[in-house]
Amino acid sequence: MTFTHLPDLASRALAGSVVYANDELFAERENLIKPGPSVFSTEDFGHKGKVYDGWETRRRREPGNDHAIIRLGVPGVVRGVVIDTAWFRGNYPPYASVEATSVEGAPSPAELEQATWETIVGRSAIEGDAENAFEVTDPRRWTHVRLSIYPDGGVARFRVYGEPVPDPRLLDGTIDLAALENGGSVIDCSNTFYSSPVQLLLPGRAATMGDGWENARRRDGGNDHVSIRLAARGRVRRVEIDTSYFVGNAAGWATLRGTDADRPGEDTEWFDLIPRTRLQPDTRHFFRPVSAAPVTHVRLDVFPDGGLARLRVHGELTADAHRAAVLDWLALLPEEHAVQVLGEAGVPRQPGELPPAVLAALMGESR
């Protein structure tokens, strides 16, 4: 599964939601997108039967199939899905497919049923009590996915791995340039022994120590670090380094450096945004950067090791970067969605550059 290093766009941790399921008699649909693995107890029975930590429909006695619709926490390009049937052995669906759609706003379940759905994983055989992985090659951006099972049964977790592509119309002004929901992503990390550095970029405050990034204890005299590609090229105005819930294992010191490069490599020049500074355990630290030069990536070094809950890099996109993000987003939209967006702006979808006034409106410059 080469795609599982990417964020799970459907995860509840990213504010994903299972907005509809045609049946959930045995086990509720919301379990599909829980961040952690499914758990099981042989003694746990309820009024309707065995209690499962997943989504389970009743046995079908008529033609058809069951399905659940998931709103992605962050829209994006899907690179692969995992249909996890953990603990479902005699009651898993023998086949499944995945469809996707791209729509404006926050439609209701009834409106989503009327949307145009495209198949991104064709009907395929799946196994019980297994992580059934499928690569997705469709290059378009989606806002919702639909898990269809044939004819019925139980699925423990549904993971939708991909590259976040947020709506760039909402990226004007000061934003968290590193946030996953704004398009930030981890590109390199020295150590992921206890937990993933992707959690540094999740929305909201960490709930526990396990909700952040924690590396192993270093014994070699070096230090740990994580590099992040920002949502787009921008100028940093404020930084937050949060060690909440890390008490005896917080990072002792940290630096934050930036670079303006397409793809940082070994010869990349980095400059200080936050010089080496002492950190306190279980504390939110706020800093003004020492440089306002535009950056595309930041590198956080912790000394010598230790955990962090969140990293926030607040700033503004440069005008050129924002303009490029709008054009890239339009190119990734399915045809129907792109026609709707441009139709509301008063122009047809066609090759070539957008009229300057339309592009300015999409960037929020006309308000």
From TrEMBL:
Cited Pfam families: Allantoicase (PF03561)
Domain of life of the source: Bacteria
SUPFAM superfamilies tied to this protein: Galactose-binding domain-like
NCBIfam families given in the database record: allantoicase (TIGR02961)
Provenance organism: Streptosporangium jomthongense
Catalytic activity: allantoate + H2O = (S)-ureidoglycolate + urea
Domain Allantoicase: 16-164, 183-317
Record GO terms (molecular function): allantoicase activity
Pathways involved: Nitrogen metabolism; (S)-allantoin degradation; (S)-ureidoglycolate from allantoate (aminidohydrolase route): step 1/1
The protein's name in its UniProt record: Probable allantoicase
Family: Belongs to the allantoicase family.
UniProt keyword Hydrolase present: yes
Known EC number: 3.5.3.4
EC category name: hydrolase
Key words, A-Z: Hydrolase, Purine metabolism
Keyword Metal-binding: no
